[in-house]
Amino acid sequence: MTIIKNGTLVLPDGVRRGELAFENGVITKIAPVLEAGAQDQVFDAQGCLVFPGFIDGHTHLDMDSGTTVTADDFASGSCAAVCGGTTTLVDFATQDKGHTLCEALDAWHQKADGKCACNYAFHMAVTDWNERTCAELPIMKERGVTSFKAYYAYDNLRLDDAQMYQLLCALQPLHGVLGVHCENGTLVNELQQEQLARGVTGPAGHPASRPPVVEAEAIRRLCAVAKLADSTVHIVHLSSAEGLEEVRRARRAGQTVWAETCPQYLVLDDSRYALEGFEGAKYIMSPPLRSEADRQTLRQAVKNGEIDTISTDHCSYRFDTQKVLGKDDFTKIPNGAPGIEHRPALIYTSFVATDEMTAAEMCRLLAENPAKLFGMWPRKGCLAEGSDADITVWDPAARWTIRAATQHQNVDYTPYEGFEAIGRPRAVYVGGELAAKDGEPTGVCAGRYVKR
Question: Residue 68: inside a domain, yes or no?
């Protein structure tokens, strides 16, 4: 048995001093004080917060974009995750046109099984909606997939409104949750061609071709479709004040709308696209970084409790060999940025250390709400007797600087280079096994598939 002593526990009912014990991968006892036996291992968490392991509900590992494959696979991505305090990730198994959901799920299991330092689950991205695909949805549930993804952008991925409606209706009896990438893909295509016709080929063309209105329009349309289907819906990577207002509009009308945002939209702004040379390519992601006003509006929404989860949309490409594929055409720059390792430190530094958020609120955004939304609660996302021993012991006194040179993400840059961070994990347990210590991996491959 292992006992974590002298820490401050972040529990579902509040934050208080206490100690916890775990054995065989499960938390067995939580009490103000626990006595250790001669055979027990003791971890002294003096001065530390003890969180349930964080859950990243939005990652893209070992993903083939058609022209290149993401720099992080499940081995490197999960290693980086645990070093930052994340113990479970949810990646996107993606159906190819003409293929089945089962084929996609099998392919992602092959990518991940036996290779992960942290636990992993899969959303299923539906890109080819037809009767065969619909018939597979109950099979997905049997195989532990309770959350799905659809796109309103990207020609090879997106569904139209009728298909979105049919998918939402089909998921209802299964209690499946649908997350949607909300950008009007038809408008994005047109605006991209406008930028290129004007001679804008560099990174600045990216935000110009994906303005906030194309996000807001897609969110409003999705909420209308969800209302017709009488369905809950999940807005992923919300990035703009205009998009947030559409979420608010739907909620005021009585709809249940879950909203996710990402650290990049809370910490960075679109001035990065004006950097000299090709540096702005490091920040090519969709939706793009927004204005400072958008950033401040989203930060306030987080503090107001209007945002339900904060995930990363981790999708890493090397700058020196992959981002440069679009050096003469911004539409060909591989779309995505790394972040799986640094999310907890970014949120702790930006909100908790500044007293704009409590540790309990951070826990809800990074652990509790993702566990509830994606069908893992209370096995994951909370410290409770009987829950899995996924635990992040957080040292709030740590001071360090985010650097590409010292990160574990398999990529040659970080969007947060030079960020002065407050707090980092002192110890990270995955299923009761020590997976990382003081921000470094132990080499333990403790990750297991989370059948939900």
Answer: yes
- The single residue listed with the structure tokens 């401050």 is 8
Q: Is 314 among the domain residues?
A: yes
Confidence of residue 182 (pLDDT cuts 50, 70, 90): very high
CATH code: domain of residue 283: 3.20.20.140
* 451 belongs to a structural domain: no
Q: Where would I find the beta strands (DSSP E) of 243-382?
A: 257-261, 309-310
Q: What is the DSSP string of 337-360?
A: B--TTTHHHHHIIIIITTTSS-HH
Contact 235, 219 (CB under 8 A): yes
pLDDT digits (tens, 9 = 90+) for 113-139: 999 999 999 999 999 999 999 999 999
Q: What is the pTM of this model?
A: 0.98
**Amino acid code (one letter) for 366:** L
Residue numbers of the domain that contains 115: 53-373
For residue 36, count CB atoms less than 10 angstroms from its CB and return exposed for 0-12, middle for 13-18, buried for 19 or more.
middle
CB distance 66 to 156 below 8 Å: yes
- Asked if residue 428 belongs to a domain, the reply is no
Rounded distance, CA 261 to CA 234, Å?
A: 11
Number of Cα atoms under 13 Å in the Cβ half of residue 261: 31
